[in-house]
Amino acid sequence: MFGNTDLSKTDGLEETIHQYFSTIGTNTIRYSKGKIPVAFLRGGGLSDWEIESAKLYQPGLSAKEIDDILYRVHDLRVGQAVQINPLFISYSHRDSAFVDVMEKHLDEKGIRFWRDIHEATSGRLEKVVDQAMRQNPTVLLVLSENSVQSDWVEHEARSARELEKELKRDVLCPVALDGAWKDCPWPVRLREQIMEYNILDFSNWKDDAEFGRKFGKLVEGLDLFYKE
Fold first, then answer.
1. Are residues 116 and 159 in the same domain?
2. Same structural domain for residues 55 and 93?
3. 135 occurs within a structural domain
4. What range defines the domain where residue 58 resides?
5. Which among 146, 32, 56 is positioned nearest to 99, based on CA atoms?
6. pLDDT tens for residues 203-223?
7. Which residues contact 114 (CB under 8 A, 6 or more apart)?
């Protein structure tokens, strides 16, 4: 939690790894005079329009500069996806290249997300992951030959299914990089449950045009999640 803190002269904020969404108070942005790196604000869960709004605290702005910022804030609020909670991405680190591309597109669309980072100790990690999933109850599950070999991804898929029962709505939003998940070591029942979803095929994700088409369909699907 970053409240009532001047971060304007803090070194290394750009490299900060948020293992969970941070709380960045309005007073912190004001005391910092808007001089907080965009990467830090985005990692803390702020949307694009909130990040743009932070610029209003910069000293010495002219009336025109203030108007320009306000117009951009308006455009960003109107244009970005309707989103209640950030997206939780469940994936194998061996598929980081795919998730890097996904991250870039989500950022451009103004969709906040929590990218699971498996660098904590095992005990702490399980607690962090479960808490994050509850705070971000739409789980983008990246299915691949790599992820179906991951105990953590299986744990996250199981947890998402349990959360669906509790919330009485869909939580999982699976995408596939290959067909390995259809015949994987996960329990048969879990595989059968995953087959009930409309799974987008991202097997040709390295083709920019194809990725763009599939991403468009993904955003349409996410829009339905947030309008329910």
1. yes
2. no
3. yes
4. 13-79
5. 146
6. 999 999 999 999 999 988 876
7. 20, 21, 45, 86, 87, 88, 89, 132, 135, 136
Q: Kindly state whether residue 106 falls inside one of the protein's structural domains.
A: yes
Report if residue 65 sits inside a domain: yes
% of the chain beyond a pLDDT of 70? 77
In the block, tokens 């095929």 appear at 201
* Residue of 75, 40, 72, 41 lying closest to 56 (CA atoms): 72
Based on the fold, state whether residues 95 and 161 are members of the same structural domain: yes
Q: What is the pLDDT of residue 125?
A: 56
| pLDDT, tens only, 69-105 | 888 887 777 655 544 457 889 999 999 999 999 999 9
Q: In total, how many domains does the chain have?
A: 2
Query: Rounded to the nearest 10 degrees, what angle do helices 122-135 and 151-167 cross at?
Result: 30
DSSP 3-state percent helix, strand, coil across the chain (nearest 5): 55, 10, 35
User: Is the pLDDT reported for residue 13 higher than 80?
Assistant: no
